[in-house]
Specification:
It is a single chain. Helices cover 92% and strands 0% of the residues. Helix 1 packs antiparallel against helix 2. It is mostly helical and 72 residues long.
């Protein structure tokens, strides 16, 4: 969701800048698109890291429960 919104905003900004001529404008639009893509990737990576941490915590809790059950 966040990625599609960010890319939509970059696309809109790029189209607005495309109306202007010149290499500098194109470079600025490309830099903005790259920045948005990098931010989106960083958000995806952070979300994946959080999900992995939650999975690891759930596995640790499950293992602890199993250890207690096996000790009885």
């Amino acid at each position: 969701m966040t990625k599609s919104i960010a890319l939509s905003l970059v696309l809109a900004a790029s189209l607005g800048l495309a109306a202007c001529s010149g290499a500098e404008t194109e470079n600025t639009a490309n830099a903005a698109a790259n920045s948005a893509e990098n931010a989106s990737n960083a958000a995806d990576n952070a979300m994946n890291a959080a999900m992995n941490a939650a999975d690891a915590a759930a596995n640790a809790a499950s293992n602890a429960t199993n250890d207690v059950a096996n000790a009885m």
